[in-house]
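Exercise 7b. Backbone tokens:
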């Protein structure tokens, strides 16, 4: 899984551009994320995946055509071609992996504070999935304890980001709340600072998620389709 970039909740205000996350200074070489750049990144990620998988498919076809007796080897090559995008999707699914250690003494209070930041339906979804759904200008977000998913408008494509808060001793819900506040402060900055772990089809990522996270992804995709 991609190494998570640390994000706090403080922000600075730039004339004419609103609040910006101070963590942007640590990734000054990255262009600020826009709707267009997300589309371009998605296309490049798809092209990269095809470039990695296509040689295996081509080799399998050539071997089967030249010597049918080598069909078993062709099958192995096709399995490798299939596995490449699946491995990428598995890495993306890892960004919303749950912290099952719910015994942090501060978790009950942190959970209550997180609940104050969202509405009733979002609280219920979080109770079942440990993910917070948040609508943004770039799409519909799912915020976890150490990562986030961005379902793009239309509900068919998703970006998976690995991102975390600096204080690892915070209870899980507090970490989620910090990321949520950072996202609300500067959505484009949040997407710029976070490290991309996967970009691709929602259906491919969905197959790699546990059942609770699949429910949250379905809700985010439905929200993105509604516009």
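Sequence design result:
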């Amino acid at each position: 899984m991609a190494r998570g970039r640390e994000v706090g909740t403080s922000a600075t205000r730039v004339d004419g551009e609103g609040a910006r996350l101070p963590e942007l200074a640590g990734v000054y070489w990255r262009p600020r994320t826009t709707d267009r750049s997300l589309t371009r990144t998605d296309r490049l990620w798809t092209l990269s995946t095809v470039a990695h998988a296509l040689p295996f498919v081509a080799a399998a076809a050539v071997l089967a055509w030249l010597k049918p007796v080598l069909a078993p080897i062709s099958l192995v090559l096709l399995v490798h071609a299939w596995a490449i995008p699946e491995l990428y999707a598995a890495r993306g699914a890892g960004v919303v992996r749950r912290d099952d250690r719910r015994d942090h003494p501060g978790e009950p209070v942190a959970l209550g504070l997180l609940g104050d930041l969202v509405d009733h339906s979002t609280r219920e979804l979080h109770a079942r999935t440990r993910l917070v759904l948040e609508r943004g200008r770039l799409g519909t977000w799912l915020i976890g304890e150490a990562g986030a998913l961005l379902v793009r408008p239309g509900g068919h494509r998703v970006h998976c980001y690995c991102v975390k808060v600096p204080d690892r001793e915070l209870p899980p819900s507090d970490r989620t709340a910090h990321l949520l506040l950072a996202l609300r402060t500067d959505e484009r900055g949040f997407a710029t600072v976070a490290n991309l772990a996967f970009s691709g089809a929602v259906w491919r990522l969905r197959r790699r998620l546990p059942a609770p996270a699949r429910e949250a992804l379905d809700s985010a995709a439905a929200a993105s389709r509604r516009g």
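Instructor comment: The chain has one domain: 32-227. The longest helix spans residues 35-66.
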